[in-house]
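Thread: "does anyone have the structure for this chain?"

Original post by V.I.:
We have the sequence but no experimental structure in hand. Need at least a predicted one for the grant figures.
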Amino acid sequence: MAAQRKTSRYVVPIAVAGIAAATIGLVPALAASGDSDLPEITAQQLIEKIAASDTQTLSGTFKISTDLGLPAFDGLLGGLAGGGSGEGSADPSAQLTKLVSGTHTLKIAADGPERQKLTLLDGKEQYSLVHNGDEVWAYDSASNQVFHEKGAEEAGRAPEKELPASPKALADEVLKAAGDTTSITVGGTANVAGRDAYRLVIAPKQQGSTVEAVTIAVDAATGTPLKFTLDSTSGGKPVVDAGFTKVDFARPAASEFDFTVPKGAEVTEGDQLEKDHAGKAPEDLEKALGDFGLGGAGQNGPEVVGEGWTAIATFDTGEAAPKTEDAPKEARGFLDALGDEVSGKFGSGTVFKTKIVNALMTDDGKVYVGAVTPQALVDAANAAQ
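Reply from O.Q.:
Generated one for you, tokens below.
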């Protein structure tokens, strides 16, 4: 079990490539869109088309643009974790945090669940992540550092899950799960990376959610999602806007997944990295959160108020909330930029805001978190009195 947790720490990011091969939607890229002349289709038929897609091979270029409405926090997570795996490291868990802000260009290749390659292109430098059979290789050209992990295939294998027997059954389950809180419609057509696509639009029916809509452009021929857009009710740029600029569903050459250690590169084995970080990063992060009054969530466990898109998780840290100046130095400016003081029947507290997820921390240590407006969090805190 420990070995599985260890290896999956690095395998999960590269699994993005595998997910992309079958359900490309989490990390695809910005692409020009336009109307396509396609036959009409219902939302259920489009969901069935996605479920029936058997795409296993592809290669392409995509861009992902993320705007959470946050101040820059490159290196913040690494700084809190205390693991020293930030810039100048090939560690995937550090490098791929770059994707949570800004705009990035990536190249992807996939040949089924056993072989994927993802390359992050930032200026003249490149970061490559390769999964080939039971091995994961990662290379950071800026530092000439290599990361290597053995046993990736078995450790990264997801547990078996019982799925609906047919695409129609899966579509029925999706629509049933949406219930009265969600609208699922076909929002016209588009052209993504030169391919005709349908737009599947998923939106909340409830008031108070920060989510305006999730739109997925689905390839009309293969049923493969090609573009993913998450819009916030706050307007402006999408929170996530990602879609292919080029895509080819032919099988990539086997040599695409070969990896040779560059001359002079320093190689870090996953086992050694795990030993170096053993007990350190989780403990340091837990201490940092605990020092700022966020360590009690695991003790009391969250409760959920509401349902659907306006559900709010709430828990009691068990102690008075500290001031921002008590936070770890890596986080102080970040928290200052996010926080607004609020008050109500519950007393007073601070709302930490993004374009999607907001959190209210009251002065007596209670926390309310959800993809809802700050006012919805205040209302929930008042109702708890």
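V.I.: this helps a lot. The first helix runs from residue 2 to 23.
O.Q.: and Residues 50 and 223 are 5 Å apart (CA to CA).
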